[in-house]
From TrEMBL:
Residues 19-174 form the Glycosyltransferase subfamily 4-like N-terminal domain. This is Glycosyltransferase subfamily 4-like N-terminal domain-containing protein. The lineage of its organism: Bacteria, Bacillati, Chloroflexota, Candidatus Thermofontia, Candidatus Thermofonsia Clade 1. It comes from the Bacteria. It comes from Candidatus Thermofonsia Clade 1 bacterium.
Length: 373
């Protein structure tokens, strides 16, 4: 917990329509900031997954209509900031940063903080990515401080001359005490897994950058092993991925679980967690998996490459390489003692480096600077 309660109020802005790692961080922050500041709330889209979760947790939130290009959005945000007496506006991801900081400046608030969760140019290598990067370049006129969640993002801002305003603050997760929970065998049966099966989980939104197609191709290369895949998450690619699994002849080995609100409940029943991403910052799914000592098989991209050490805390493979993924699966599925040791090493790493108390105090220090300029 923070050493000293701050006298200012904080508004977090997250206008995402889906729920991912950024939303996990926002939910974690707003909960902790209730007692660390004079007050904290979140501006969200009405009916979004984050809005629904915050309501269930009785967390203060301000709702905006779902059209992020709505002409009333900016005036509504400005009113929220002004009437709420917020001195810090911490916006998460591109559209939230653009609208949140513009509204803050119109409300006379200068304590603008931009929290970056992704390398948007790498994640969207098209016009959308170029537009997002352009928005972030323009935002340097409004943001007092930046928070990055990986070394890769921090280095990117430093190359742009923003290193003096950027602070690296990793995501953090609660660390369950040892001994960790046992697998839920009934849940594994729901997935179609036999007791001896090696069950791999991929926890990510179903979109191209997450690399599901390469993992499915890898599964087709290990049909001789008792391996099953559980796809946790939803998104626009689901019909295409289901069709791919069928065409590869592995539909009986792949279970599409859909979106799950309580991922930690599933983790003890997985034998491995895979991230097959083409680009990645520091996904909460990896930290959560490590906190439950799950062996990790990940592509060596972005924050995954800087966080994890191959053969020590994870098995790392090149991105967009189904053959390398298959080799990684084979190694972990046939060397289970080695896999378990990877999991325990990852558990010890997150327990030491990713405490929520340390994350909160660093965030508050950024807020202090944002309002002191």
């Amino acid at each position: 917990m923070a050493e000293q309660r701050r006298a200012y109020k904080v508004l977090l802005v997250d206008l995402a329509r889906s729920y991912g790692g950024a939303e996990v961080r926002v939910q974690t922050q707003v909960t902790a900031l209730q007692t660390a500041t004079a007050g904290c709330a979140v501006a969200v889209l009405r009916g979004s997954p984050l809005h629904e979760r915050l309501v269930r947790l009785s967390v203060p939130c301000h709702t905006l209509e779902s059209g992020r290009a709505s002409p009333t959005l900016i005036s509504r945000l400005r009113t929220i900031i002004k009437q709420g007496g917020y001195r810090v506006v911490d916006a998460h991801n591109v559209q939230s940063i653009f609208w949140g900081h513009l509204a803050a400046r119109l409300a006379g608030v200068r304590g603008c903080v931009a929290t970056l969760h992704s390398d948007y140019g790498a994640e969207y290598p098209n016009l959308k990515g170029a537009l997002y990067e352009g928005v972030l370049r323009l935002n340097r006129l409004m943001a007092r401080e930046y928070i990055t969640v990986t070394e890769t993002l921090q280095a990117k801002l430093e190359r742009r001359g923003l290193g003096g305003r950027a602070t690296l603050i990793h995501n953090a997760v609660p660390i369950p005490p040892l001994p960790l929970p046992e697998p839920d065998h009934a849940l594994r049966r729901t997935w179609g897994a036999a007791p001896e099966d090696f069950v791999i989980g991929i926890i990510a939104r179903l979109k191209p950058v997450k690399g599901h197609r390469y993992l499915l191709e890898a599964m087709a290369h290990v049909r001789d092993l008792p391996v099953r895949l559980v796809v946790i998450g939803d998104g626009p690619l689901r019909p295409e991925l289901e069709a791919q699994a069928a065409s590869l002849g592995i539909a009986d080995r792949v279970y599409f679980a859909g979106f799950c609100e309580d991922v930690p409940r599933l983790l003890p029943s997985l034998d491995c967690v895979c991230m097959a991403s083409l680009s990645e910052a520091l996904p909460y799914a990896v930290l959560e998996a490590a906190s439950y000592a799950r062996p990790l098989l990940c592509t060596a991209v972005g924050g995954l490459a800087t966080l994890l050490e191959d053969g020590v805390t994870a098995r790392l493979v090149p991105a967009q390489d189904s053959t390398a993924l298959a080799q990684g699966i084979r190694h972990l599925a046939t060397q289970r003692d080695f896999a378990c040791q990877l999991g325990m090493n990852a558990y010890q790493m997150v327990a030491v480096r990713f405490s929520q108390a340390a994350m909160l105090e660093k965030i508050l220090q950024v807020y202090d600077r944002a309002i002191s300029h």
